[in-house]
């Protein structure tokens, strides 16, 4: 087992990894930028190392500085969390050459699934259905127009290097396709230094269902069932739950089997997620693999009882998976709300600043993953998520009641948060009945304001 892990991330996920290290009796160090200096969670690690100024490109994304920090504290492994360098195969390679274990999937698998177009080819090879799409990258407007004529509008333009909804545009006709292509290429180039895009049929009101997988270095892969992440705003998740409501047992089984087939084909290990869209006829289509731990991983931890970060660390150290597929069972119902420092009344504008009052909810069935305390200053530099509020109850109805109770107890002052929008979501009949899709929030909740 590792002696000392360096956490190359910030905020709630850095704290989550620090806690996992403590549980395993492993020493832990954490990096921080000048914008995060003095954040209370840093004191919970054995050491904290400053790696540069606030902008992520000068700190959390600077490979040399993170490697230097690992060498200073003498870490034998690095946990990248999510975002930042977590899906960067080059970073994993640098770690290897510096004899530091990267806690994540193997470089080759990362490189393969990190490109969405290549990931779709892999899915086809593994006999996993994919959304009808262009044959690889589209280079010219003519190619794009031909594809659209074939499958019919609307079509979706997607960046091959995409993530966080960037470089994604819906086109309704030939004119918006041409302008959308230019915009998507530009956005993707700026965000990922890779302007390549491809096209997909834009599915009508699908659900987003994803499968958590876990593999070891000995070729064992298991799935830990699904999360339903259909409640989104601008293709970004707001609420996640497991099990997915109203999903026929056979469909669930088929999607889980498809996910395992896919990652086995990539010789994948560590934690990962296969994302699918499911249409009204419960036909499912693979869209992408997230080759890292995800924000919403605690939903799966609650229903399966498996500590995913701990297992990630164990398999990175070379241990065999401690669970056979037959031992993975789900119990009860779990839901997560992403609490962002954003102002829902002003188009979800980020709301940085000092939290003057932080009164978190608690009681039976509640888990709160957060690095925030009263007096904490939310820096303007990073992702706006400040907490993940989770509940776990025997039934979905009970989970909803507990989530309503927890959202009501949660008091935050000094910054705006998405708590009010979650309170509304949990009163919405279509969601209560499990009848939502990925465009529901924008169609039914936000446009009516
Ligand atoms: P990113 O990696 O940028 O988050 P994804 O490929 O994971 O992008 O897609 C994010 C979301 O965009 C999905 O959950 C879904 O809501 C929507 N989406 C993606 N592809 C399609 C599609 N072909 N049809 C309809 N919606 C889509």
TrEMBL record:
An individual GO BP term: fatty acid biosynthetic process
Annotated metabolic or biological route of this protein: Lipid metabolism; malonyl-CoA biosynthesis; malonyl-CoA from acetyl-CoA: step 1/1
UniProt cross-references to PROSITE patterns, sorted A to Z: ATP_GRASP, BC, CPSASE_2
Keyword Magnesium part of the UniProt annotation: yes
Catalytic activity: N(6)-biotinyl-L-lysyl-[protein] + hydrogencarbonate + ATP = N(6)-carboxybiotinyl-L-lysyl-[protein] + ADP + phosphate + H(+)
EC number: 6.3.4.14
Domain ATP-grasp: 120-317
Recorded GO MF terms: ATP binding; biotin carboxylase activity; metal ion binding
Sorted UniProt keywords: ATP-binding, Biotin, Fatty acid biosynthesis, Fatty acid metabolism, Ligase, Lipid biosynthesis, Lipid metabolism, Magnesium, Metal-binding, Nucleotide-binding
Residue ranges constituting the Biotin carboxylation domain according to the UniProt record: 1-446
Pfam families to which the protein is assigned, alphabetical: Biotin_carb_C, Biotin_carb_N, CPSase_L_D2
Subunit relationships: Acetyl-CoA carboxylase is a heterohexamer of biotin carboxyl carrier protein, biotin carboxylase and the two subunits of carboxyl transferase in a 2:2 complex.
NCBIfam families, A to Z: accC, PRK08591.1
Matching PANTHER family: BIOTIN CARBOXYLASE, CHLOROPLASTIC, PYRUVATE CARBOXYLASE SUBUNIT A
Described function: This protein is a component of the acetyl coenzyme A carboxylase complex; first, biotin carboxylase catalyzes the carboxylation of the carrier protein and then the transcarboxylase transfers the carboxyl group to form malonyl-CoA.
Record's protein name: Biotin carboxylase
